[in-house]
Write a structure and sequence with these properties.
globular, five-stranded antiparallel β-sheet, alpha+beta, about 130 residues, single chain, 2 domains, about 40% strand
């Protein structure tokens, strides 16, 4: 193998590339692949119609409260929409600046006017 194609230093040590020190490449931070761990599940019952129309903003507020991050740099990117008899379930990728930091699923029961927020945080890669 050619030296210019080898990662790390001459002994194969990967610490010289930045991967061992918690610095991840830009492609990994922006990608949607990875492991996600359950962070919280919150349920609310008997909401009004105006509150049901603002559930995505409520979900973003709850995520901002659970981590030390500024809400104005967070955004939701719609991944899947699923509708059944009496409910809708929307899945969003949560982005902080350009990084995918988690997945938020919002399940709305339209008959009982209940909402369930399920947030899965992206598992950290590397040392813990």
């Amino acid at each position: 193998m050619d030296k210019k194609h080898r990662m790390g230093d001459s002994r194969g040590n990967r610490l010289g590339t930045g991967y061992g020190r918690g610095v991840l490449p830009k492609e990994y931070r922006r990608s949607k692949r990875g492991n996600f761990e359950l962070s919280f599940v919150e349920s609310y019952k008997g909401l009004s119609d105006t509150e049901l129309s603002l559930v995505d903003k409520y979900g973003l507020d709850m995520i901002a409260l659970s981590m030390p991050a500024d809400k104005k740099y967070m955004s939701l990117e719609l991944d899947k929409e699923k509708a059944g008899v009496g409910y809708t379930a929307d899945t969003y990728y949560v982005r902080y600046m350009d990084q995918v930091i988690g997945i938020l699923t919002i399940r709305v029961d339209t008959y009982l006017k209940d909402v369930t927020f399920i947030y899965k945080e992206r598992a950290r890669k590397g040392r813990k």
